[in-house]
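To make this tangible, we now present a fold written out as C-alpha cells:
***
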Amino acid sequence: MRSERSFAAPVKFFALLCAMLGVFLVKNILFTTVLAIFCFVYVGFQRNYRLMASCGAFYLLLSLLLCAIRFYGYHTVIISEFLVLFFWSSMVMLMLFWDLFMTPPGELSSFLSSIHMPTGVILGLMVIFRFFPTMKAELKAVGLSMKNRGLTSVKQFTGHPLASFEYVLVPLLLRILQIADQLAVSAVARGAERPGVRKSYYETTMHMRDWCFLALWGIVTAAVLCVGGVKI
C-alpha cells in the first residue's frame, strides 16, 4: 500500500500531463511561475521537503540568473541563456517527473493495467522509471568497493585515469547485465507473458485530497492557459 502522505498514481500522472500542457502551450512563459508555485505546494502536501529544498534552491538560482540576463545584460559562460530559460520554465515538469520516479513500481503498474495499457508498454515504463535510482545505488556500491581497495585517492585518479575509469565501468556493466537477467526472470515469474486480465497486490484508491488536487491541477492549468494565452 502507498504511503498516506503520497498522492495516488492517477493524480501524479494527471499532474505531469497538466504541467506539460501548461509549459509547452502557454504563450507568456512567465506564467509558468504559477505552475511552479502550485507544484511546490503539491509536493509540500506529500511532505517531500528534500525535493522542495533542492528544486527550490535550483529554481531560485535560475531566477536570479534570468534577472541578471534580462535587466543587467549578464552573459553566462558555461551554459547558454536559452538553457537557463529552458530549465527555469521546465522546473515544474522535472519535479513531477522525479515525484513519479519515487512512486512504488507496483502502484504504477497497477494503475497502468487498470487503464488497459499494453503489457510491453508497462514493462518499458517501469524499467525507465527505476533506471536512475538503480544506477545511483549501483554506482554507490562500486564506489564503496573501490574505496575499500584504496582506488579512490587523488593520486590514483590523476596517475592512472584510464585504469580508474575501467575500475568503474567494468563492474557497472557486469551489474547491468545481471540486473537485466534478473528483471527478465522476475517478469516471466510474475506472469508478464500471460494473456488476459492481470491482478495486482496494489489497489488504486482515490481519497478526498486526491480528488481535490486532481481538480486543482486542471483548474490551475486552465487558468494559466487562459490568462497567459495559448500558442496555437
About this structure: The mean pLDDT is 81. The first helix runs from residue 9 to 25.
